[in-house]
Fold each of these.
Amino acid sequence: MYSKLLKDFREMYMAYIPLMIILSSCLGSVAAMYILMQERSSMQVIQLTVCVIICMTFNASILAQMKPKFVFNLLIASLTINALLVLLNFGYYS
């Protein structure tokens, strides 16, 4: 399944770039919002730092025109980490 997704991703790489940036940035923004809604603590700073670093790394990899496989792996990492941060911090407000 991974190889099929990667093959499709490589074929449509230029068309996926705007969608990937929007998706990663929006999910990162939601994660940052939930992190900043917490009480101030050192854990909040660490979570926010991880969120910003993974989003910036992903966006920089696109701008630096890295190989599609590397960008694809960073997209998966960015979405996974930010989704985990959202779920971790959403529990405080549900």
Amino acid sequence: MYKIKVNTSHTFDVTKESMEKLDVIETSTNKYHILQDNTTIKAEILNTDFNQKTYTIKVNNTAYDVDIYDALDQQIEALGFEIGASKQVNDVKAPMPGLILEINVNVGDEVKENDDLLILEAMKMENVLTSPREGVIKAIEVKQGETVDKNALLIEFE
């Protein structure tokens, strides 16, 4: 089952079976003719972001922003973790014990999400830890060459 959120305000549950019952014909690339309850609906996919599972769809000349949540997304949400940027991560902790090989940022640096922060060597593998969000580095709690335990505080954000 998928959870569909339209314009961040309306939520619908959709099953694979209900999708298979839809009377849909693709009339041209990203344009569809849908027949539901003897009513004709024209739909067009205007924009897609497959990785974020977001789409902009025009239905009868009105555009809608659509988010699709699969079973894993719903399970993550049920466990209390937020999806997207609404939850602020204020620090980076060591995911495993290891040795700090390199620190790529300084206090006061502005970083973007997925920027490289530091390299942690663990089990003879180099692990690049990236920024979980956009922000400013408030504190760096480790030094190059230092050994850290799992869950040790490495970097704090403002």
